[in-house]
Request: fold
Amino acid sequence: MTGAPAAWRDNQFFMRTTIQTTAVFEGIGLHKGKPARVVFTPAEGPTGLRFTGPGFAQPLPARVDKVAGTVRGTNITDGKNTIYTVEHLLSAAAGLGIDDLDIEINGEEPPAADGSALPFAEALRKAGLREKPAQERRTISIADTVEFVKGETSYIASPMPGGLRIKLTYAHPHKLVGSQTVEFTLRPDDYLKSVAPARTFGFTHELEALKKAGLGLGGSLDNAVVIAEEEILAKGGLRFPDELARHKLLDLIGDLALAGAPLKDMYIEAVRPGHAGNVNFAKLLLEKAL
Ligand SMILES: [Zn+2]
Reply:
């Protein structure tokens, strides 16, 4: 993140942040395959990350209590309008340390972009970050260990002075995947360089079932890494040897943003995380927050 102020690079703001100018991104949605346009707009109030669209009576806050489903992506609803696959957009905003942002979508799903959060993060970065001097930033921290376990999926958060550090393990029995572990302290410049570019992925044996269920319709090698029986198909090759685990981290950051405030002074260890577990863990952190 060349040229960004040090405070932004290290996310050391104490006041709430939004973007300086409007930013636009267009493309097709991953699961529904329809053209989509996203407009990021600065938010004047301490309103958090919110979605708006043509049919919305009022903005829909990106919060755990609005989650409508977590199958192959995180969907939120106000009861009338549902927005699918919000996690990559939320990840970009949270990863860059943006507290307040209005995200206008002209359809049900944001563009898939290249399957990562990088195009969104770059658009937001280009729009510039602005600190709001009158609005103090609220963060979430914990006093004791918080744990969530379901089957082979587990999360454990421990208090740790500093920002937010996450260790994540992704594992799959496929012979080309195995187990991958990544660990990062979340700072906007590291997020942009090391997490945002990691693309979503799928296994060929899942793709048929996915399409039959009406999902993954916009998916192609332009916006996903595909793991076939004998090879990993990735446009331009894998961006990182552990791109899959990094993408899981990208998703986790996006889903944890649904807690409604940045997590701070915390060390999280996540093993085999998925959207359902991420959202439940975000709920639990909110319940246990100081
Ligand atoms: Zn994802």
